[in-house]
Amino acid sequence: ATPTAVMVATGVGANNGVLIKGGDALERAQKVKYVIFDKTGTLTQGKATVTSAKVFTGLDRGEFLKLVASAEVSSEHPLAKAIVEYARHFHFFDDSSATKDGEKHSKNSTIPEWLFDVSEFTSLPGRGVQCFIDGKRISVGNRKLMIECGIDIPTHVENYVVELEESAKTGILVAFNGKLIGVLGVADPLKREAAVVVEGLGKMGVRPVMVTGDNWRTARAVAKEVGIQDVQAEVMPAGKADVVRSFQRDGSVVAMVGDGINDSPALAAADVGMAIGAGTDIAIEAADYVLMRNNLEDVITAIDLSRKTFSRIR
Ligand code: ADP
Ligand code: MG
Q: Are 106 and 143 contained in the same domain?
């Protein structure tokens, strides 16, 4: 393609909200064989909502949610935001809990005075959060975190988590003072166009893959819903780039589509990194393409544009 053709294509991309960082990136996209999608916030809307909260001890429901939200309020994770939002709603709008403590109820307060004071907050990427409330340790996260903390998961709790995961939800386990006290179910719906894009890529001879830090059972349920056969789950944040490299091993050109901080090494490692425009700045910086409309159809637009631009000279 002539420099003019590249310039024109870059302009066409920009008009469609596909920002391309340079002619090399534009050229590489035509040869893409695998498109690896991050799950949370890329294939899914990234708008997690709590769909259930089960308390396994005699603890009051409001008290349970207050404990969990206090631990999660310092986390930036979408799951944490969903949990805090759910607890906030319960605290302020559930009649049984709204009146029984003497706190000030300012609905729009950014300083959550309705929560417990916590100390020693630690965020454990790919696993959850941990801190202390009243000198007692609270851990909120996945099985891996519970195992690390030496928390026993009773069979009835495990069964409940499995039930959530089989319906494509993520089970968040909560341990307080050495005991498992409850589980939250969180759902994050697929983007409306996700399944159509997956199908479209297949028709173009491109193989879609899903990669996620979430557990295998939830990952498989989501992959099935969207029509992806190739899944890599329980991948630690640093591991996504290794997944990209494993697909590159036979010389295949690999695209990675992601939105999060933990996707940026994989976006950089990919031959074609595509960041969701609504994603974090670090992901956008690491990518070759930015999909400004946050619409997965633009993955196809980008590959098409490259194919059309570079087929003219063949
Ligand atoms: P993803 O690739 O889906 O963005 P992450 O690596 O961010 O996944 O997280 C993987 C898993 O770790 C989550 O599915 C969840 O089980 C657990 N996790 C991470 N952060 C939190 C948190 N703040 N609260 C609870 N669980 C968390
Ligand atoms: Mg993500």
A: yes
Is the ipTM, as predicted for this complex, more than 0.90?
A: yes
Residue 208 lies in domain? 3-45+189-311
d(CA 81, CA 83): 5
Which position among 24, 38, 271, 281 bears the catalytic label?
A: 38
Query: pLDDT tens digits for 48-72?
Result: 999 999 999 989 999 999 999 999 9
pLDDT given for residue 98 in this prediction: 47
CA of 75, closest atom in ligand 1: 23
264, two tokens: 């940026």
This prediction has a pTM of 0.87
How far does residue 134's CA lie from ligand 2's centre (Å)? Answer: 33
Tell me, what CATH number does 153's domain have? 3.40.1110.10
Ligand lying nearest the CA atom of residue 77: 1
Known catalytic membership, residue 214: no
> Ligand 1: which residue has its CA nearest to atom 16?
142
Which residue is listed with tokens 């949610």? 65
- Backbone angle region of 104, left / alpha / beta, with phi > 0 → left and psi within -120 to 50 → alpha: beta
Boundary residue ending a domain (187, 203, 218): 187
